[in-house]
Specification:
The chain folds into 2 domains: 234 residues, Aspartate Aminotransferase, domain 2, CATH 3.40.640.10; 117 residues, Aspartate Aminotransferase, domain 1, CATH 3.90.1150. Strand 2, helix 5 and strand 3 form a beta-alpha-beta unit. By secondary structure, the protein is an alpha/beta fold. The protein contains 13 helices and 11 strands. The structure holds pyridoxal-5'-phosphate. Pyridoxal-5'-phosphate (PLP) binds next to helix 4 and helix 5.
Length: 372
């Protein structure tokens, strides 16, 4: 048995920037200002440019980014309590929790069988009188079909929100970035994401001045002037330290996406085993930043054990669909067969910038040697 290499080597990823991150730390330490200050403003400006939007607003984490978008729209009267928000069942639970936390009702729908992203036909079928918004998750780093979702949103007067927590830097066919493709977008900078802080952090992006103003208030106790509170906001401020680190990490967004794409290209070309179903290469290469490389296998447990014996780590994103989570027991009887089937078959292979060629080789060889 070979020694397992890491599924994701966060220390190695961050140590590429040891000098710049240390400088950032010292800059903040010496400034004496640690929450919502010059570093946050600078990062917000830089991230807005990177996403091609008017506004980027730093918040505590990705869940808060999504929740605050929805709460901002409630403040603006665009959403009211009990309105329905349509989202994919096969996502990280945060997508649904944001809706619940804002006092809205999640409506879970099936993914597309090829991309695993939300299925536009399923969205349309789920639209009812109380449907007011759709959240498109760019799952595993691949842009959802925003053109068809935009058409639906326009036709049925729905807000279109991106959960871009896995898709920093993904570009559509016209070169427009994730974060600029809907009415608003939520990003996470949790350490394992494609742009990761050294702790929790998030941001939301939008072209909408009114929404931006509401969210800036909401993230800081509903206040735009000290000790004057216009709404019952929350504390979801971004730390200066994380913002300073993120300014460093942001410089690698494009080159890291390129590195991830190169590894994905090798896996797609060199993994060949009738028991494994590989993801389809996207028609537009830049529309996928490969947060995860996810294969399907009906004998997933045997495959994962085989990979482990071969010294290849793997993870499952995600083993339980949202409607089967105890937290959403009210949805247990929903009929979402494809989402349920995916949860039983998906397996994520290691893929990150700096993954050694020998480890890529080992992953390919182990996948090809698997016999069901
Ligand atoms: C990580 C993630 C989130 C939540 O981000 P946090 O920063 O952990 O709150 C939301 N949606 C998706 C799809 C994610 O992958």
């Amino acid at each position: 048995m070979s020694n397992m290499f890491p599924f994701l080597d966060l220390a190695a990823l961050n140590l590429r920037d040891e000098t710049a991150l240390t400088e950032a730390f010292q800059r903040v330490l010496r400034s004496g200002w640690y929450v919502l200050g010059a570093e946050v403003s600078a990062f917000e400006a830089e991230y807005a440019v990177a996403c091609g939007v008017q506004h980027a607003i730093g918040v505590g984490n990705g869940l808060d980014a999504l929740t605050l978008i929805l709460r901002g729209y409630i403040q603006l009267g665009r959403l009211v309590e009990g309105d329905e928000v349509i989202l994919p069942d096969n996502s990280f639970i945060a997508t649904a929790l944001a809706v619940s936390e804002a006092g809205l009702t999640p409506v879970l729908v099936e993914p597309d069988s090829v991309t695993f992203n939300i299925d536009s036909a399923a969205v349309e079928a789920a639209i009812g009188a109380r449907s007011k918004a759709v959240i498109a998750v760019h799952l595993y780093g691949q842009l959802a079909d925003m053109a068809s979702l935009r058409a639906l949103a326009d036709r049925y007067d729905l807000l279109l929100i991106e959960d871009a927590a896995q898709a920093h830097g993904a570009l559509d066919a016209q070169g427009r970035p994730a974060g600029s493709l809907g009415d608003a977008a939520g990003f996470s900078f949790f350490p394992v994401k494609n742009i990761g802080a050294l702790g929790d952090a998030g941001a939301l992006t939008t072209h909408d001045d009114a929404l931006a103003e509401q969210v800036r208030k909401l993230r800081s106790y509903g206040s735009s002037r000290k000790y004057v509170h216009e709404v019952q906001g929350v504390n979801s401020r971004l730390d200066e330290l994380q913002a300073a680190f993120l300014r460093v990490k942001l410089l690698r967004m494009e080159s890291d996406a390129y590195a991830r794409r190169k590894i994905a290209t090798r896996y797609l070309a060199e993994i060949c085993n009738p028991h494994l179903r590989l993801p389809q290469a996207p028609a537009v290469a830049s529309s996928h930043v490969w947060h995860q490389f996810v294969i399907r296998c009906e004998q997933r447990e045997a495959l994962q054990a085989h990979l482990e014996r071969s010294g290849v780590p793997s993870l499952i994103h995600y083993p339980i669909p949202i409607h089967k989570q105890q937290a959403y027991h009210g949805f247990a009887n929903l009929n979402l067969p494809l989402s349920s089937q995916l949860a039983g078959e998906v397996l994520s292979l290691p893929l990150y910038p700096g993954l050694a060629d020998t480890w890529i080789d080992r992953t390919i060889d182990a996948c090809n040697a698997f016999r069901a």
